[in-house]
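User: These chains co-purify. Model them together.
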Amino acid sequence: MTTDQHFHTDELSRNECLLYLFDELSDEQQQAFESRLENSDAMADQLARAADLIGNVAMSGIDGKSSHSNDSPPWSKQRRVAAVLLTLAGSLALTFLFNWTSLQNPKPTGNEQLQIAEVWVATITNDEVQEDPLANLESFAVTSVSLDMADPIDSSTDGLDLGWMVEAIAQGENNEG
Amino acid sequence: MTIDPGKNPNETEAADDGAEGREPDNNWRDVFLDSEPGLRAFLGRRLGQHADAEDCLQVVFLKAVEQGQNIPVAARKAWLFRVASNQAARIWRDQSTTTRILEKHAESSAANETPDHLENLVAQETTRKLRQAIDQLPPSWQQVVRLRIHEGMTFQEIANHLQIPLGTALTQMRRALEQLAAKVTRDEDS
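Assistant: Joint model of the two components:
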């Protein structure tokens, strides 16, 4: 027997061992295999080796969720790659859109902020002092007994004087240059 | 000693060793009945003595009842042969010439037995190495191993499912097992 023939026979024999252990031989093939097994140490060795490995793999608990194993056809991999690329493209588009929107509606500059603060403070100081009945606390204190029960409130309009805020903002502007 | 695998193992005399109260599931019984002639042939070849082969067969069946519940159905026959092979090796060791001489002095059996916890450690280590080795197999080979052992598909079904020739499915399985064996052996040697 040539080396090639021997290799071929050996390969067939090993495949037969697998088929036997996985119970995929016909009844006749199985009986023939067992008859040969009774008389061949080499076959017994081969069967023992295959059984040992299959048993070990079975007990190793691989459930097919290995990082490499995948039962799906190859085109689904391409789909996954496309999905990743689409996600990346979407992220880039969103980032670009956000930046573009920011350019179209720039944030107010420091001077503008200061002006807005001045207007807001002036509005609050004028309107709320006039409208708020607590602003006339002193007259209320004289005429109303119920106010004795109220929380002590500074009678001055300091709490409503927000000029300090304007000054602080202006000072901040100066410090920042 | 002979056994009747169709009988509840709790009714056998060796059941008192630890299999008490356990029932083999029907699949195990079927697998054992189907494998029994092959196991007998295998053990007869391995051990030579008919009585030893029968004792070994008894142990194999009890181990299947005690420990085999987690073995995937498709791999149960192989697992029985694996247990049979290990048990035969143990009997062979225990009955070596040296042991026989020592047995005459009634000292040897305990000294020659491998403690169970050591065997468990070795098995755990082998399992760990196998998992690593499986991850290193080509994906198509892993797929065949998984479909055959864990999904219980026949090689023909795998071939149809993956649209490959039957011979390729068989060869991939065999090469996967050989590569795993080589990897585990190499790790043990190093």
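The interface with chain B takes residues 11, 14-15, 18-24, 30-31, 33-35, 37-41, 44, 47-64, 66-71 of chain A (CB under 8 Å).
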